[in-house]
Amino acid sequence: MTDDGAVRLNRSGSLLRITLDRPERRNSLTRGMIDALVTALTDAATDDTLRAILLTGAGGNFCAGADWVATNSNGQRPRTGDLTRRVPLTHNRIVELLTTIQLPVVCGVQGWAVGLGCNLALAADFAVVDTEATFWEPFLDRGFTPDSGATWLLPRLTGVTRAKRMLLLGDKVSGARAAEWGLVDRAVTGSEVDAAAEELALRLAAGPTVAIGLAKQAINYGLHATLPQAMNHELADLELSCRTADFKEGLAAFRERRAPDFTGR
């Protein structure tokens, strides 16, 4: 009997740790795990006491993607249009939440990051990865086209030619190469991944949370905007961020020549 796995949540102060926990299947995601991850991220998006998210996998792997066998194991042929109804609310919704949530998201990646699992790492704001980790987009190897944002994320992060090698040829990319290509923030030895990812997440959690969220939103908006549109968006964000308590603290710290003590408000 296949283990359904779980999405484990562990809160430490203002940091939410999310662990994909199905190690016997390299943390491949069942439908229940996907729903749980959507719920966890949706709840986090509206929790004003949270300031950062750390996403990892249990048992030495990050995520081997969606478990298509587990999610299609009821023996019944899906209704026509099943994917177009279901995927926007499941696989795609997770990627959308990671990129739009106004909290910084850090992924710690070891072992395999495959398909949807690869795209989760790419959608995070920062990914700290094992040099020996493996990033793989095997969609065409399985006979179907890429999904969950792969064709949007990869060309923007690493360029069209490298994206084609990963998506059309199914080339595997090591963690070290992923960092070299700019797919992820940095690569470290396997034993350092957890500590390095947590350190980065805590650093972000200590920052001006509102301003970080607005800046993240502006970066994503700027990917498809003209320069005047992007600057107008920046101006609206500036108007909001200048009204926060963290803005006042930042100015006070600058005047007093000390490190700021942001509260996320």
What does this structure look like?
The protein is 45% helix and 15% strand. Helix 1 packs parallel to helix 4 and helix 10 packs antiparallel against helix 11 (227-241). The protein has a six-stranded mixed beta sheet with strand order 1-2-3-4-6-9, with helices on both faces. Strands 5-7-8 form a three-stranded mixed beta sheet. It has helices at residues 31-45, 68-71, 82-86, 91-100, 116-123, 150-158, 160-167, 175-181, 193-205, 209-222, 227-241, 245-255, and strands at 6-12, 15-21, 52-57, 105-109, 112-114, 126-130, 134-136, 173-174, 186-188. The chain is an alpha/beta fold. The model has no long low-confidence stretch (mean pLDDT 93). The termini are far apart.
What layout of secondary structure does this protein have?
Blueprint: E1 6-12, E2 15-21, H1 31-45, E3 52-57, H2 68-71, H3 82-86, H4 91-100, E4 105-109, E5 112-114, H5 116-123, E6 126-130, E7 134-136, H6 150-158, H7 160-167, E8 173-174, H8 175-181, E9 186-188, H9 193-205, H10 209-222, H11 227-241, H12 245-255
Parallel strand pairs: 2-3, 3-4, 4-6, 5-7, 6-9
Antiparallel strand pairs: 1-2, 7-8
Helix pairs in contact: 1-4, 4-5, 5-6, 6-7, 10-11
SSE order, one letter for each helix or strand: EEHEHHHEEHEEHHEHEHHHH
> Kindly, what is the distance between the CA atoms of the first and last residues, rounded to a whole number of angstroms?
48 Å
Number of helices: 12
Helix content: 40-55%
Mean pLDDT rating = 93
- Please tally the β strands and state the result: 9
**Strand fraction band?**
15-25%
How do the strands of the widest beta sheet line up side by side?
Answer: 1-2-3-4-6-9
Low-confidence stretches: none
- Main pleated-sheet profile: 6 strands, mixed
**What is the global morphology?**
globular
C-alpha-based Rg, rounded? 19 Å
The SS-based structural class is: alpha/beta
